[in-house]
Design brief:
Protein name (chains A, B, C): Tautomerase cis-CaaD-like domain-containing protein
CATH topology of chain A: Macrophage Migration Inhibitory Factor
Distance between the termini of chain A: 18 Å
Pfam family, one (chains A, B, C): Tautomerase_3
Helix content of chain A: 25-40%
Largest interface: A-B, 36 and 32 residues
Oligomer: homotrimer
Strand content of chain A: 25-35%
């Protein structure tokens, strides 16, 4: 569900850092009861001569695009809270290492979303819990 | 129009499989009369140590992001039907090979969509047919 | 803010061309007073055997996905004008070199958009001017 695409300079993260950053991001969702496997994070290295900010090539910038499907945050306050928590989660690997960065989160309607071909049980909290417990989608 | 981004483990698909999968996806649209060239499919290999699902690195997962521009499906039933057909189209290359996978389809308003700089003839079925017949955009 | 993802055949652009194209795109926004650093452009080479248009592998096609956050264009005429200017900006590097291409622009609500963790001053023109003047985000 949440899809996180992280565009970064090739050397920005070690494998250990990518793992740790992924764990921190995943926890933002599992803390709310979502199945861990919903959280997909794709690290995409972009070479300096293909990464432009303000018309200039850079290896000091990280751009993150997040898409939410399982939950639409209902109002501006909740959205602001999410952004705040997200910034805390990523700070040790981005801000604290001296990068500039930009994040945006999109909310995508879930009607054409499928996990292993199954309709995610957004409207069936008990089944969603079961998916979370097993950490995989099962027919219902 | 439909843009399909397929994020996959580097070795997931042979060139023949990518071709065949692309043909099957393309037919979903040409069957409805859309020009074949509207259908763009980008395969993006993601290394195992950059592909995280549920906080864990994986080479067993395929994530597909689809964007529709030429047609907005008018109701939930039609959307569900599309998802079903899409799952059938991709199953031989993903489900049947033992991967886990996730798909979502987004519907993007077409006002700022251009093909070779031309406004696609969404509102002009006769011209769209001509684009489909020639399989290229021509001024009108 | 504006995020431009340019999917292109590996050899399509020299570094000088990528720089020049990025400068031309960036000017579309700085001409309107937006901070230059808002404009992020990611060039993503896609190998011929991973780039399919109409079910066929190609190295003659360029696909551009643009996302706007800081400004939603208020009506269809303004959107059409933007698309026209965009096409002019990219033509020397795409149309004039004989590629086929497709562009679409999406407008994403800005509530969960952050620059270096800060809420961009969309509603504070004086602060936005200051960000533009300094070409970096500063707390306010």
């Amino acid at each position: 569900m949440p899809l996180h695409r992280i565009f970064h300079p090739p050397g920005a993260f070690s494998v250990a850092e990518k793992t740790s950053l992924s764990e921190r991001i995943t926890k933002l969702y599992t803390n709310r009861g979502l199945p861990a496997f919903y959280v997909v994070i794709l690290f995409t290295p972009i070479e300096k001569d293909s990464f432009f900010v303000g018309g200039q090539s850079t290896d000091k910038f990280i751009r993150i695009v997040v898409q939410h499907l399982a939950r639409q945050l209902p109002n501006d306050q909740r959205k602001a809270e999410f952004s705040e928590k997200y910034e805390e989660a990523i700070a040790p690997f981005i801000k604290d290492k001296g990068y500039d960065w930009e994040v945006h989160v999109e909310e995508v309607p879930p009607e054409m979303w499928r996990e292993n071909g199954l309709i995610p049980p957004i409207k069936f909290p008990e089944i969603e819990k079961e998916w979370a417990r097993l950490n995989k989608p099962i027919p219902y």
